[in-house]
Structures
1.
Amino acid sequence: MDKVETGRRWHDMGGDAAGPVPDAQHDFALWEKRVDALMVLCSGKGHFTVDGLRRVLEDMGEEAFETMTYYERWIASVSQNLVEAGVITQSELATRMEEVAARGPTYGEASGG
Amino acid sequence: MPHDHLSPSGHPYRPDQDHPLTYWQQMEIALRELLIEKGVTTAAEIQSQIEAMDARTPANGAAVVARAWTDPSFREALMADASEATRGMGFDIGPMRLIAVENTAEVHNMIVCTLCSCYPRNLLGLPPDWYKSRAYRSRTVREPRKVLAEFGVELPPGTTVRVHDSTADMRYIVIPARPAGTEGLDAAALAALVTRDSMIGTGLPRQP
């Protein structure tokens, strides 16, 4: 939701009131490292820019920020940018996602290791 | 909680491998496979990118800080152009502009990315979860001393606190003040005193 009174968008949160800084930390999972690697490699090869990554993250809105994890939002944005760039199509991605899910119920099984 | 989610060594199992597949993990697998099939990247390239990122730890930044503490001409070069100076130490800094900000008896620096999560990842590795949190992003520019207090850092009232807001193209690293009583230490011993948080500005170096 945009902050109508200030003209700032939701992600422009510097200076807002907020609760204590959370101290929980998790080790990055393999799938998260893979998302990070795909972002670095695809942007490094010129398929999209870090600004493109952020545009989609910002357009996903505040609810996505609150309900999805960091790399969940990143994979959504990386995929969207690659569709826009014509590297993949939405239907290719949807078809492959169904095939992936059919391989097994865990990440290890679905990713083949 | 029963301990049925712990491995025999008492640690949680890797959450990426044995939990139910999520929609977003499904997307990561599918996208990765399509990119490999289309020749955009290879499995080996992805793996080596992951290894390169895993190899970037705060020890890199600590080596930079320790050298700045012990080598006056390096310190001068670092403050003038941190990208160039750290590239000269062999670190892969990429195209971004890196700016070193130095803590002194009078000034304490902190870094934040209010808009997202920009961080000197080439020198410190991936940012900690709290760095990306709404609370840190929102409050650091408004009430840095309260945020510092939550990290256990209490500065003298006369200290100037400067907060630097990062962008995708311009990132900061804090060069903490060298602790007193470290005159006899070499660069390796000094680097061991330099914590990740001391280079974000939410901590101070360890005392020898």
2.
Amino acid sequence: MINSEVGTIMNETDSVHPVWKKLIKKEFSISLSFLAGKLLLGKLQVQYGTEPKNLVHLARKMHDLYYLNKDLPSVKKDIELINRER
Amino acid sequence: MSSRLYCPEELSDLIRAGRVFCIAAEEQLLKKLPRGNWIGGSSPYFMSDQGGVVSREKIFATDLTKVTTGFNITLVDEHELKKVYTNTPENGFTCLILPSMSPVHLSYALNASEYPDFAFRPVIGWVSGMHLFDLGEKSAKVVHGPTGEISSDKGVAMHVTLPPEMMCDIGMVNIFKQGTDDILEFPETGFHAKKVFVNGEEKCFLDYLKSKRLNFKLPLIADSAGAKVNASFQAIDPKEKVVKFYAPVFKGATYRQAELLDDYATEFIRNLPASSERILLSFNCILNFLYSELEGRRIGSIAGPVTFGEIGYVLLNQTMVYLSIYLREEEGSFISQSQ
């Protein structure tokens, strides 16, 4: 269901859509609702600052958190916002 | 209601009947409860449906029986605490209680975001305390209901598996916004600070606070991708020139003091979730209770223990955290239907 709503940014097998990398790199800024998402993103953005070569891994982690929780209302709200930045 | 104040005898009967509870009360009341399916922490402060309450006679309990298809209750030392996310069921949550100023409290505060599976499984909870009149005389406690074991240095965790049709989410109410004044960075991670970098310039933190006449009711705030994480002021030690916090400040994080609020209580009530019918558990900081003067004051139907720290994936402070339950494929509330 979520994939039809938001295109391909949420996909179990292809988790590194560029939008997730852009999110980690702070190339856009959005107000997230999902508390776990905010806290993990803050951590991953710090990690990216010290280990930029791990970007793909960090982006996958962020995607995976959202995929795992894709049915939660707060996650659906965030996905809609993130999808606008594709 | 699934969360409310009980007389000890009434709650004891329900525990004996096998119901599953998260409990808060004064230590001497917790000690009297029968063994069973429960976890507990010490606090005489509660938010009830009748408003803020301070009681040494009543017990606050949330009945989790109807949302639980399985549960596991364990005491956790620092080593076990590292597995708190990993041990949380795939479709479920963990309710964690840590005694204030215990090794597990300090360890969780400093390291939670480094534990395996951080953020991937919901961990909510609170830091237990004591009546403020007893500060320095008593220690905070947690209780492992199945054995009755009481601890002041271990935490207690209830790992709850939800029915397949339910899912949960943790929310946080933080009424504060970062102000626009100086940028503060700390050279060391910890619950206290001597030095601070103010806009990049190293200063004695206590001297800085005095010179700026900062309001101690307003926490320092770090912004983690939009999650505002507070470090609230606890005390100053003028002799040692040390400033103490209720939650740690982190090296590498950027802090600003919170903006002044027009009215603390009004702002707190304005920021509460519009609907409380999905909320199963909530934990509200004692600083909100005191500064909003919540004793005897009702804040909607949100009920829960008043705490010495909140847990919402990480240790939080001067916030309220809550766990909401949703039905899959349905927006409606289950709690009002099933309780």
